[in-house]
């Protein structure tokens, strides 16, 4: 479903501020994979997502999505087949518009002045009811009045309404309280599993990186330093993961945020 071949990206090249963000990343993602990605701040995780989405063009390498070379495809065209959630619940939806209006836009049913018919409204109600947050009875309410958890759950639904070829989750529960984060993660797992979605999820929670999905990748300094799946992954503990990072990178993980969420 997704192939990255020797992808490289340097920001501010030729200046004293030059920074290698992606250093020859090669990654093959099979259809239906659910991959958790971990690494310290600056490891290249979000930059990897930006490269996949087309937020910038890479310096070297190729990116293929479902067999098509999208390396030079602009971001707005890739957005038609790539769903993405961000850490900030305020991103991914229009706060001044109602829940219903946001869903109309997500479903690709028209422009800013579009309206849904009776059949579409009922379909939206049924989908919202699956979130178990009572949003199906608040469809006329502006999204900006929702709580962070409600908004993130809605954004997740919007991102998967038209079933993207790949779903990218960029620490999408990091800004939520633990109880709400767990609820959104359970909802994420349910949606991904039931629809057979191909999904990559950045997380700072090392236990979640082992518990969720079927493959775990660790990044450091713009490189993939550890990639595990199957029986090897199932047998790993968080302590094992820290040891593997040390072995692969030659240094110990020094990130309080990750260590405190073991």
Task: Describe what you observe in this structure.
With 262 residues, this protein is of the alpha/beta class. Helix content is 34%, strand content 23%. It has ten helices and ten strands. The protein has helices at residues 45-53, 75-78, 99-106, 118-129, 148-159, 178-195, 206-211, 230-234, 238-249, 256-259, and strands at residues 2-11, 19-29, 34-38, 60-65, 68-69, 82-85, 166-170, 199-202, 215-220, 223-229. The strands form two sheets. It has a six-stranded mixed beta sheet with strand order 6-7-8-3-9-10, sandwiched between helices. α5 (148-159) packs parallel to α6 (178-195). Residues 109-113 have low confidence and may be disordered.
Task: Determine the fraction of residues in helical runs and give it as a percent range.
Answer: 25-40%
Q: CA-to-CA gap between the ends?
A: 31 Å
What is Rg? 19 Å
Give the total of beta strands: 10
Largest β sheet strand count, sense and barrel closure: 6 strands, mixed
As a percent range, the share of strand residues is 15-25%
Query: What is the tally of helical segments?
Result: 10
Based on Cα principal axes, name the global outline: globular
Query: Which stretches are poorly predicted, pLDDT < 50 over at least 5 residues?
Result: 109-113
List the strand order in the largest sheet.
6-7-8-3-9-10
Average pLDDT metric? 88
Order of helices and strands: EEEHEEHEHHHEHEHEEHHH
Oligomer classification: single chain
What structural class should be given to the helix and strand makeup?
Answer: alpha/beta
């Amino acid at each position: 479903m997704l192939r990255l071949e020797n992808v490289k990206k340097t920001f501010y090249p030729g200046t004293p501020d030059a920074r290698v963000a992606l250093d020859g990343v090669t990654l093959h993602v099979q259809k239906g994979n659910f991959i958790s990605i971990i690494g310290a701040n600056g490891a290249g995780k979000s930059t990897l997502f930006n490269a996949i989405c087309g937020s910038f063009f890479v310096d070297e390498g190729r990116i293929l999505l479902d067999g098509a070379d999208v390396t030079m495809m602009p971001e707005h065209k890739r957005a038609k087949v790539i769903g993405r959630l961000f850490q900030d619940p305020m991103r991914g939806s229009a706060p001044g518009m109602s829940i219903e209006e946001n869903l109309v836009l997500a479903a690709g049913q028209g422009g800013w002045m579009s309206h849904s018919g009776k059949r579409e409204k009922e379909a939206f109600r049924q989908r919202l009811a699956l979130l178990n947050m009572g949003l199906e009875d608040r469809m006329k309410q502006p999204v900006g009045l929702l709580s962070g958890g409600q908004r993130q759950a809605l954004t997740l639904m919007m991102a998967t309404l038209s079933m993207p070829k790949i779903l990218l989750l960029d620490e999408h529960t990091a800004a939520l309280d633990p109880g709400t984060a767990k609820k959104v993660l359970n909802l994420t797992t349910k949606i991904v599993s039931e629809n057979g979605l191909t999904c990559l999820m950045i997380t700072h929670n090392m236990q979640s990186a082992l518990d969720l999905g079927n493959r775990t990748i660790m990044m450091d300094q713009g490189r993939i330093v550890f990639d595990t799946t199957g029986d090897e992954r199932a047998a790993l503990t968080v302590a094992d993961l820290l040891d593997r990072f040390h072995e692969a990178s030659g240094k110990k993980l020094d990130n309080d945020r990750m260590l405190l969420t073991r």
